Amino acid sequence: MMEAYVAIIIIWLFLFFYALGGAIDFGAGFWSMFYFGRKDTTAASIANLYLTPSWKVTNVFLVLFVVALVGFFPHAAFTLGSIMIVPVSFVLILLIIRSAFMVYSYSVQKYTKAFTYISGITGLLIPALMLSILPIIIGGFVEVVGDRHYILYDRLLTSPTLYAHIGFGLAAELFLSSLFLSDYAREAKSMETYKVYRKNAIILGPIMIGMAVAATMTLIPEAMWMVENMASQWHLFALSVIVFSVGYSALWWPSRKGRVGQPRVAVVFMMIQIGLASFAYGWSHMPYIVYPKLTLYDALTNNQMFYSLLWGYGIGMAIIVPLFYWFWRLFLKDKRYLTNEEVDDVR
Amino acid sequence: MDNVLLARMLFGSSLIFHIIFATLGVGLTLMILIAEILRVVRKDDDYGILAKRWTKAVAILLGVAIPSGTIVAVMLALLWPGFIEVVGQVIALPFTLEIFAFFIEALFLSIYVYAASRLSSTMRIISVFFVALGATASAVLITNVQSWMNTPTGFNVVNGEITDVRPWEAVLNPAFGYTAVHVASSAYMATAFVVASVAAYQLLKPNLKASEKTYHRKGLMVALVFGAITSIWTATNGHASAVGLHNNVPVKLAAAEGLFETQSNAPLAIFGTPDPEANRVVGGIELPGMLSYLATGSLDGVVVGLNEFPRDEWPPLFVHTLFNIMVGIGTLLIGLSFGALAYRFIFKKREYPNWLLIPIIGSGPLAMLGIETGWIFACIGRQPWTIYGIQRTAEAATKSANLGTFFVIFLTLYVFLLVITALVMRFYFRRNPLINEFNSQSPSV
Ligand code: HDD
Ligand code: HEM
Ligand code: HEM
Asked: Where exactly are the transmembrane stretches of this chain (chain A) (predicted)?
């Protein structure tokens, strides 16, 4: 039984990284649209500076998550496949439109604006749609007939919790990306852009927390079991709220250079906050993958495969982590990249 | 329409779409490496410009290559849960390792493209080497799963349960070696001819400046030499694949060749239609004994025919045509590339006449057609099995409805994206003509 928990924690880790990376990625795409063509701020180009080298890497985390999930838990495929097909197919459709148009917007100057709008909007919707899957696997809206699972769309689409989850997805994406970009702008020594994103983060932070609470509260009539489990994890959730408050307040901490706010501190605290909250949420979900029929234990692969996968991920990570560090140095720290005008024509 | 058929159509069309971009991603990154090396060795900046423009093409293609790959990976799990259930127990390793190949490719590509001006030329070559390595490794690893589907090994089945799993034995299944080599070499080959097509098209234009002409000629030469080598290589290991089928999946070879009766001295049938009533291929050309010779190395080797297998285990017989198209294209392109090189090096003609450039333009699309027919043959020729001898396609498929709607949506999307991608390529390279590159001799890509 140990194995099942090791596997789900690995998957949670991948999901955590993708949640952060994806939120920042899709959010940055949205801001690049939002500030498109504005002469008074470089907010759009800072967003693009981050996006161009990193979107591919972020996307690999999505694939990593999916592959790890079906690799460790192959017996979940039938159930997940039948309830996920509709929402996930829509995510995939948005994803390919978003990536294609984002890349193409750099290549055809004539249509840059239209293409940036298409990719900005489709990207904005992706995390929201992904989060709308959460209330479904909690079991509130699924009917099981024989071995088939049906989503009860009429009930789902009229339930407040769906919209609360979507709202949470949007707010989290916009908040995390603003916060991250404010730090990125500071790294690029663009004070004015820093201020723009800091202001966005200040507005969006409380909205995100409010939406998170709303999403949980609206869950009560749909999945009481989940809410009860979450209540028993209250200390982790409470801790995550405290961490959030500290991180949020860091946006006002003074810095040596006379700037208001310590965005790096805020980013680190928010990562911890998301980590704590998502871990607590995930833990409340245990041992179910899809409530009430499918548990971790039913779905786990055999021992031989489990251990060779552990080796595979271990060795792969050992190779890739130093590379990530180098990548981070080149694109998220190197002043020559951050202040490089050449970047525009390189794309 | 029934669910299984819809799932096959949806998945097949997604792969047919993905493979176009994936193949070019595998091949172009290697050609960029070659151009970067030639630039240093020959001290000729034209090769630097080739590398730069090919890199731009890769960057555009990636906008679709990566999400379409994500689509097929997720669809594999959604549409074929029965298959994934077995994969997760027996052959999950290559999928896992593939992720790291993707990481290596994506990280080094960004480094090569966006950090170019901050890297020494050795570091640039090293970066693009890892891009090419990552791309080829991901193709080889995904092919590993596909070869295992043809020759499943590394587990036992007891009362329908999978037991005694040996993950590495599954990875090193009998078909892996020859399949991986054939897939990689055919991807290089197809890309070489696509590049040759583009160069030949440019050379056909009137009023080219001398510098542009030399540039395109260099591009054409690199592509033709590379294409000639890889096409011979592809035919050789394609032959090894056919021998592999003879040993491991005889029913597929029989369907490919339209052979009904088990026999020695089996004839090789080129084109025509396999006719189960007549027990032979009608309307094709027959080369007596050739099939026995190719499959077993001797004219009186015995080749197994379709009649040895129950009817419901036959793949659809039109795979014969798919197979012939692939082999025909391979043979044709060997002739074309060696002919064109002979014209240049044996007859010492510097300029290609139009009658030679025009067929070269056709070679790129033909080579891509070879890739498509080859894959469709490999997947449809495995029917009715998804995992040969173990799991039928109907057992692998999802039970959920709604597939028809999604098939229509995805298909529309693919067609639309193909058109848009072509337009974007055209637009970009028009807006940034070669002349500009000669003027701004900056080394950065
Ligand atoms: C440019 C593309 C191309 C060309 C010219 C050829 N092939 Fe090929 N072939 C492929 C591209 C390809 C492929 C798309 O890469 C396949 C599909 C699945 C696979 O393993 O490779 C393939 C599969 C494939 C298979 C089936 C393997 C299996 O199902 O396990 C055989 C027997 C051959 N090929 C044989 C040949 C021969 C004898 C060729 C002679 C010239 C040839 N191919 C040229
Ligand atoms: C033989 C056929 C295939 C080949 C040669 C191939 C090759 C490639 C290559 C080279 C890429 C990277 C695109 C690029 O950077 O140029 C790619 C992307 C991808 N492919 Fe395929 N692929 C094939 C089939 C498949 C299949 C069947 C799957 C799913 C099971 C798949 C899953 C993916 C995924 C998930 C990505 C995106 C990775 C990312 O996020 O970077 N591919 N493929
Ligand atoms: C990228 C090139 C490929 C193309 C164009 C291709 C094409 C197709 C087509 C047309 C089908 C439908 C066949 C039918 O049901 O009649 C199919 C099925 C399938 N292919 Fe491939 N395929 C490719 C590569 C792969 C690879 C690399 C894998 C392994 C991971 C794979 C796994 C499958 C599976 C699992 C099915 C569904 C079950 C089945 O019909 O057997 N394919 N493919």
From this structure: 6-36, 57-77, 83-104, 116-142, 162-181, 201-220, 232-253, 265-284, 304-328
